[in-house]
Amino acid sequence: MKDTLKPGIRYQHKFVVPTSKTVPALYPEAEEFVAMPEVFATGFLVGFLEWACIKAINPHLDWPREQSVGTHIDVSHEAATPPGLEVTASVELLEVDGRRLLFAVEAHDGVDVISRGRHERFVINKEKFDAKVGEKKPK
Questions:
Q1: Which residues are annotated binding-site positions?
Q2: Most buried in the list 43, 111, 117, 119, measured by CB within 10 Å?
Q3: Per the structure, how many domains does the chain have?
Q4: Which of 13, 60, 77, 108 is catalytic?
Q5: CATH number for position 88
Q6: Which annotated residues bind CoA (predicted)?
Q7: What is the domain range of residue 16?
Q8: Is 42 a catalytic residue?
Q9: pLDDT tens series, the chain, 139 aa
Q10: CA–CA separation, 51 and 44 (whole Å)
């Protein structure tokens, strides 16, 4: 981690929601999801917020040797967003505690605030992380 990784880092990330990021596409194997409205899925929203946090801090890591993984998410999903709208995630690094990072996150679809909350990430050494995960893989 570089010494520039400090609270106060802010980042905005934009993304136009495609049909492939709507609820029916989340788990196409699940008939319950397929029958649901075609709006930005909460699961994809979470990934979008994580993406914004990653983009915010990558210049402050020794990327790609150092990366970050999500360890906790506590966000609302307050409004439905149809495909074609551009969503904007605004994130701010609030706390750096060793390798633990805490972010405030918010997303807006140009009409409504669609999400707000907190996200925690942990800085990892990719090689060590991959080795440990490899030990868990079925033989």
A1: 70, 121
A2: 119
A3: 1
A4: 77
A5: 3.10.129.10
A6: 70
A7: 10-136
A8: yes
A9: 999 999 999 999 999 999 999 999 999 999 999 999 999 999 999 999 999 999 999 999 999 999 999 999 999 999 999 999 999 999 999 999 999 999 999 999 999 999 999 999 999 999 999 999 999 999 8
A10: 10
Q: According to the model, what pLDDT value does residue 9 have?
A: 98
Distance CA 86, CA 30 (A): 27
Respond yes or no: is residue 77 known to be catalytic: yes
Rounded-to-integer distance, Cα 58 and Cα 121, Å: 12
DSSP 8-class letter at 85: P
Determine, yes or no, domain membership for 1. no
Q: What is the pTM of this model?
A: 0.96
108 is catalytic: no
Task: Choose the catalytic residue: 13, 22, 50, 120.
Answer: 50
At 89, give phi and psi (nearest 5°).
Answer: -100, 130
Per the listing, tokens 């899925």 go with 41
